[in-house]
Amino acid sequence: MTLERKSGCKVNLLLNILGKRADGFHELETVMHPVAVFDVLCFARHPGRVELTCNLPGLPTDSRNLVHRAATAFLKKAVIREGARIHLEKNIPLAAGLGGGSGNAAATLAGMNELFDHPLPPPQLEKIAADLGSDIPFFLQTKPALATGRGEKIQPLDNLRALHGAAFLLVHPGFGVSTPWAYQNLARFPAALNGTPGRARKLISLLQTADLELSAPEFYNSLEAPVLEKYPLLALFQEFLRENGAAATLMSGSGSTTFAVTGNTAAAQTLAEQIKGKFGATCWTAAVPAHSA
Ligand code: C5P
User: Fold this and answer.
1) Which of 257, 212, 262, 277 shows the shortest CA–CA distance to 37?
2) Maximum CA pair distance of the chain?
3) Residue whose CA is closest, atom 20 of ligand 1?
4) How confident is the model at residue 282, as a pLDDT?
5) Gap between the terminal Cα atoms of the chain
6) Does the pLDDT at position 215 exceed 60?
7) What is the pTM of this model?
8) Most informative mutation of 10, 26, 179 for ligand 1 (most atoms within 8 A of CB)
9) Per-residue model confidence as pLDDT tens digits over 8-35
């Protein structure tokens, strides 16, 4: 039997870092929204161990890959002596702040659980997910969410009215940003490192009760401080997107993707053409409905 699963990505409408913790991670509050751009994973049971293949020749397929780690952790926890063959078809850019690898890991946990007839209950999958990476538990569910702690504590959100009918435009510059680098370099920006709690709740309340125009000024990302300083092109993207009608624009996660929110999908598609016209066709873009009610 072969099982196929899509694995999506996310943007952070807000990423407010509250300080550095004793364990080296950063305490944060973030509002994450799913984005309908997908990788595809195929799973089959296999008598050997975990064997991963991928359409991208440069991507490691051993234990450096989160898919491999997730499948191995699943088999260990479920005490299954069999292995699996997994193929990963990558469309989401790497090191992009879109959580593509985290989504792959979550889809692997859910896919493997289905492939082996559900030996693990959801809380055990959530525990493995949180141990593997801060963003992974978000992808075990499908709703926008408030995430706290180091990002692994998830509260799903309903009724983000301001995004009803809206669309996301993703703009990737063709290079990635290392997440550990972005967090380490926050140390030079004390205000960004020690954000005031409560901004996430304020944004959520606006998204649930007001419109996009009133919500937009509350979009915020602490990691822009180090990343936009090193890569000024990303600030130019935002300026251009704002000047050309984006209701909101921000860097997602630790970058390098910039996203814009527009009132509808046609506006996001037009903006995609404009940004490629201005900055060159090598920019990767995706314009998709936000699917939020
Ligand atoms: O949890 P994850 O593996 O995605 O984190 C990657 C890196 O990002 C961590 O090693 C750490 O340097 C940084 N990070 C952090 N605080 C967080 C999440 C990630 O410092 N809340």
Assistant:
1) 257
2) 57
3) 25
4) 83
5) 36
6) yes
7) 0.97
8) 179
9) 999 999 999 999 999 999 999 999 999 9
